[in-house]
Amino acid sequence: MGFSQWLSLTFIFHAFLSLPISSEPSLSPEGLPQIPVNFLELAKRPEVFDWMVGIRRKIHENPELGFQEFETSKLIRAELDQMGIPYKYPVAETGVVGYIGTGSPPFVAIRADMDALAMQESVEWEHKSKVPGKMHACGHDAHVTMLLGAAKILQDHRHVIQGTVVLVFQPGEEGHGGAKKMLDDGVLENVDAIFGIHVSASRPIGTVASRPGPLLAGSGFFEAVISGKGGHAAIPQHTIDPILAASNVIVSLQHLVSREADPLDSQVVTVAKFQGGGAFNVIPDSVTIGGTFRAFSKETFIHLKQRIEEVITKQASVQRCNATVTFNDNGQPFFPATVNNKDLHVHFQKVAGDILGTQNVLEMQPLMGSEDFAFFAEVIPGYFFFLGMKNETQGRFESEHSPYFRVNEDALPYGAALHASLATTYILEKQSKPNPPKGSSHDELNPS
Ligand SMILES: *[C@@H]1O[C@H](CO)[C@@H](O)[C@H](O)[C@H]1NC(C)=O
Ligand SMILES: *[C@@H]1O[C@H](CO)[C@@H](O)[C@H](O)[C@H]1NC(C)=O
Ligand SMILES: [Zn+2]
Ligand SMILES: [Zn+2]
């Protein structure tokens, strides 16, 4: 960073000092690292913390499934109205996109997903889900709250944000591909970078974890109907048994990962659904099986999809059955792998290190789970990370999608401060850097 850039940064930084909200706790003008620290102190203030806890509990009590987040969306808009933050609505049906700052570049987006899961909450507490069979068991209620918390901090500093922070409240993450729909609605036009948080019940509170490059797998679903000829279970010679054929199909599918895949290229094929028959003495006409497949690279993913179809149809025919295979019913797109941008990883490590201490910024192995944040990170530089919630003195924290899943509300200020700091310092740094000259030295060394 050149001297003049440092001067302009220092100037912008001093402007932060003059705002009422940051006057106490006081900032010492020691440079950028103070901004995240200051933001965490703001987010931990009782008036901000209690407000966030209230929002989170309200959303938790009224969980809504993908693309049905009408009340959640209404609550988000009411809070944005209250703060005087302009927004676009509806985006992708129930989504909301807010804007803080100048309305001009650079644009940086921070994202929260809004939807709940179709499952019954088993945690007995005052703010248990009031909707039978629906539950926020993935922490998306906390994600929305953290983004609103960040919005509050950012809005109080809006006059010194020399760019625009885009608040992305996204519907339908849990298998609905809401991110894709938001993209199709142009949410990321002109946006330079996007950040996303997921809470993690298995990591300690006050820590974050992520990695550069592939973080989460690409994912798809398959379903197959294997049809034979039903009949009396005691007279198998007059039937074509789809139960046995389906069983062999499932065993053959196991060979894809164990025998055909490169052991160093992680992949999963799981059959999670098997439906057929209903009586002890009847061979059914057909069996339906279904499952998921995961991979990190596009080529591997496409190859796996093709082999799944071949193995099912050909193995079924060995036993005189017919099979039809469909992928991602109702035409949902496959989730790509979530790949973190390497420059944003450096930015994240610096900012998170300033807030949490560098020893609490952990590098993790990739996971075979998937996230539709991947759609965003596929088209612009994106960065997704996990925020720890585990606090052993508060009992066991069950994993995501468990009916006993609990959010540790003490994590809310960390999420709010991380969102706000990642966006603010991204804009400050972008503003302080002159545009790279056209045709970098790298290009000159590698003429195409
Ligand atoms: C499989 O499909 C062929 C061609 O449509 C049909 O002739 C045959 O009866 C089917 N077999 C079964 C077991 O459904
Ligand atoms: C963990 O929980 C205890 C008991 O509620 C609390 O005193 C402590 O501050 C918590 N730790 C963190 C890092 O939040
Ligand atoms: Zn989930
Ligand atoms: Zn989730």
Automatic annotation (TrEMBL):
Keywords for the protein's UniProt record, in alphabetical order: Hydrolase, Manganese, Metal-binding, Signal
Cited InterPro entries: Amidohydrolase (IPR017439), Bact_exopeptidase_dim_dom (IPR036264), ILR1-like_Hyd (IPR044757), Peptidase_M20 (IPR002933), Peptidase_M20_dimer (IPR011650)
Extent of the signal sequence: 1-23
Gene Ontology biological process terms in this record: auxin metabolic process
Statement: the UniProt record of this protein carries the keyword Transmembrane helix: no
Cofactor needs: Mn(2+)
Superkingdom of origin: Eukaryota
Peptidase M20 dimerisation domain location: 218-316
Residues noted as binding Mn(2+) in the record, renumbered to the chain: C138, H140, E174, H198, H401
Cellular compartments per GO CC: endoplasmic reticulum
A molecular function GO annotation: IAA-Ala conjugate hydrolase activity
Family: Belongs to the peptidase M20 family.
Name used for this protein in its record: Peptidase M20 dimerisation domain-containing protein
Species this chain originates from: Quercus rubra
Taxon lineage: Eukaryota, Viridiplantae, Streptophyta, Embryophyta, Tracheophyta
